[in-house]
Amino acid sequence: MKKRLLTWLITTALIASAVLPAAASEDTASDTAAVFQPEIIYEQNFDMPDESDEAKALAQLNWTVQTKAMGAYTDPTAKISIADGRLAVVGASDTYYLMLTEEQMAPYDGKTITIQYEMEYTTAGNASRYFCILANYAGQKYNSFHFRNNGCANNQAHLDGGWRTYDAYNPSIDAYAAATDSGNGSSISMKLLGKKYESNVTRFSGIPVTVRYVLDPDAGISAYMKLAEHDEGAFVLVSAPDPNGDATPYYRTWDANAICLKIGGSQNGYIDNIAIWTGNGNYPQPVEETTVEETETVEEPTESEQITEEPADEPETEKEPEKVREPQTIVNKIAICAVALFGGFIVYKKGKQEEQTK
Q: Among residues 278, 302, 326, which one ends one of the domains?
């Protein structure tokens, strides 16, 4: 009889254990770690009326031109305007435009950020000129990835009048921005256009490119580029931080987070589609949320009926269908356990009767 009782208890426990873990998985599902969602910090596509007057253009953008009295390295001589949905640049000597202040960027201190923008060079005083967006701007100190018209670049820190470099030639990754196809790696001209670097040739005049500048507080500063006409997958790593770079020990040694546009000398051209976001991935895309009601429709109404019955000002995310269905799920599980208990009892009772007849 004791063996029959033990058999009944084991059988019942096995059946119940096959059912109950499902309830446990539902309870722990909400404890899953949230997936990182990049935050867009700033966007500017210059989709605004044309404005040739710099002061008025700056007012539309909410930018401020910097002077030596304000801490800039030089006084302004370049000019910017808004033309045909782009920022038009007329270069002269180095000029700085503050885009995002220290206060605006303070919430992102210590976080990885990505700065991306499209640019097209036109005419230039010489092939080594450029414009770029600076990070960690503090007047005399800032971080800069400046891509030159001739097809090479520098990933550097400007420190009180001098330059130090974050990257270095490493043949295993070939990601030295200043490479010139002469034993120090392949140049950006070679990487993007398949053409050998020539210092006096304005190789990129009339060729729109996209720059992606990534600042990671732990890993350092990297830069990627592609021809603007190509898709996201075409980005090429053109600069990677290196422990041998003489700027590496200075990274994040000054407390600054402001963002600034620099016109690096007599380079003319255009800038467009500026975006800054947290993280080091691709440009963040909107996340489309799908509710249970949308995927488990009973009557399957037409698209026009769905639009009529579900206006945009009543977001589906307020509903919690899982909680509504949970009582029924628990009842089902209790019923299954009851059946298991009853079945086990019948087996036990029959076995007892057989023992009595022996």
A: 278
d(CA 215, CA 232): 19
Burial of residue 27 (CB within 10 Å: 0-12, 13-18, 19+) is: exposed
What integer pLDDT is reported at residue 294 of this predicted model? 39
Q: What is the pLDDT of residues 163-172, one digit of tens each?
A: 999 999 999 9
Residues 101 and 172 in one domain: yes
Decide: 173 and 156 in contact? Cβ < 8 Å.
no
CA neighbor of 185 nearest in space, from 198, 199, 204, 168: 168
Residue 49: other Cβ atoms inside 10 A: 9
Q: How confident is the model at residue 28 (pLDDT cuts 50, 70, 90)?
A: very low
Place of tokens 């009782």: 5
Sequence-distant (6+) residues with CB within 8 A of 287 are 37
Under a CB-based contact definition with an 8 Å cutoff, are residues 60 and 72 in contact? no
